[in-house]
Structures are given as C-alpha cells and as structure tokens.
Amino acid sequence: MKVLVTAGPTREAIDPVRFVSNRSSGKMGYAVAAAARARGHDVCLVSGPVALAPPRGVDVVPVTTAADMLAAVKRRVRGCDLLVMAAAVADWRPRNPAPRKLKKRAGPPRIAWEATPDILETLAPLKKKTQTFCGFAAETDHLAREARRKLRAKNLDALAANDVSKKDRGFEADRNALTVFFADGRAQRIGLAAKTRCAATLLRALEQICAAKKK
C-alpha cells in the first residue's frame, strides 16, 4: 500500500527568533512510518521539526508550520491508501508575526491569535471510499468522549487516543499506551509498551480496515 504519515510538532512564528510549539518529539509518528515500511508498504513521512533520524526506506518531507503540513499532505493524499495523522499540529498561531526581533525591554508583547487549519477536517471532503484515515488525539481529560467526537467530526476510520497527563508515556517518552476507537463503534486498547510495538499493533488493525475496503 501507499502509506502517508505525519509526525512531530509544528512551529508557528512569533518573531524571527521565537515560536510557539508543543512537546511532541515525533517518536510515535516515526515509529508508525518505520513499522509500515518494515511491513513492505511504500511510505511517505511528512515531518515537523524533530531530532530523529529518518526511518530507512521512507520518503521524508520536512515542514515547519501547520500551513506547510497541510499543503504537503494535500498534495499527496489522493494517491495514498492509508493516512495516519500522528503529528501534533499547533491549534493556534500569532495572526501577525513580528518582522523583527521583539525586544525584552519593550515588555511582554500583545499577541493576537488565530486558529491554524484543521488538516483532517480539510481533507475529509477529499477522502475516497477506498481510503483509510486514522487520526491521533493527545488528551488529558475525558479521553473516550473527546476521541469519539473527533472521530465523527473528521470522518475518520480510526482514531488513536493517548493520555498525555502521565509522565511515563506520550510526549517525549519512548513508551506509549493507546486506545484506538473505530468508526464501527469498537475500541481496542494497546497497553503501555515501546512506541515501536504500539505502532506495529496499530498498523495491523489499520491494515485490516484497508483490506476490507478493497474487497
């Protein structure tokens, strides 16, 4: 299959020196891309800024902002069989980034914020019946409720949710625990394990959905 994966954070400029971002290391998305390649798929990885080596045999497309990531994914999504959006895309960005460095002596800047584009909501109308879309949700509260809401709102086949309030998993950690919610109402728990193992388990479940759609 042709598999398209996103990973890592995005960065939204405040001025030429500063930016707003999040704690995503990209490890989960990179693990998904590596697992897909190991299982023989043709993989493209759209990656925000991370400090990780590219997975072997994977085509890596580096991006910085949410708008960059949307453009890169939109150019490639029509040709993929499976999309896995593991990136932690910034929800807001400064409306008018300063063209020059903001000086400390001027005091805290007043920043007007605006929403970044929701990549999965933007792609939903483009989704073909033969394609499988999987999102990720990093939550600290009401994990199941939020995951199911996003699953419906974004026309997904599956959504992998993880609790990032715990220090031994999720952002920046090497391990994770996922609950995968499916469009048919099922939920599958993937217990605390190395992100590589979580990725392999998730990928097997998504391959089953892909195979069913092609029958």
CATH architecture: 3-Layer(aba) Sandwich
- Spatially, the strands of the biggest sheet line up as 5-4-1-6-9-10-11-12
Per DSSP, the total helix count is 5
Strand content: 25-35%
So what's the overall shape? globular
- Report the sheet with the most strands, covering strand number, pairing sense and barrel closure: 8 strands, mixed
Structural category: alpha/beta
Question: How many structural domains are formed by the residues?
Answer: 1
CATH topology: Rossmann fold
Question: What is the assigned CATH homologous superfamily?
Answer: CoaB-like
Element-level helix/strand string: EEEHEEHEEEHEHEEEH
Distance between the termini: 14 Å
How would you characterize this protein structure?
It is a single chain. This protein has a single domain (2-213), classed as Rossmann fold (3-Layer(aba) Sandwich). The chain has helices at 27-38, 66-76, 119-123, 143-153, 195-213; strands at 2-7, 12-13, 19-20, 42-47, 59-62, 82-85, 92-94, 113-115, 132-139, 158-163, 175-182, 187-194. With 215 residues, it is α/β, with parallel strands linked by helices. The protein has five helices and twelve strands. The chain has an eight-stranded mixed β-sheet, sandwiched between helices. The mean pLDDT is 93. The longest helix has 19 residues, at 195-213. It is 27% helix and 28% strand. Helix 1 (27-38) packs across helix 5.
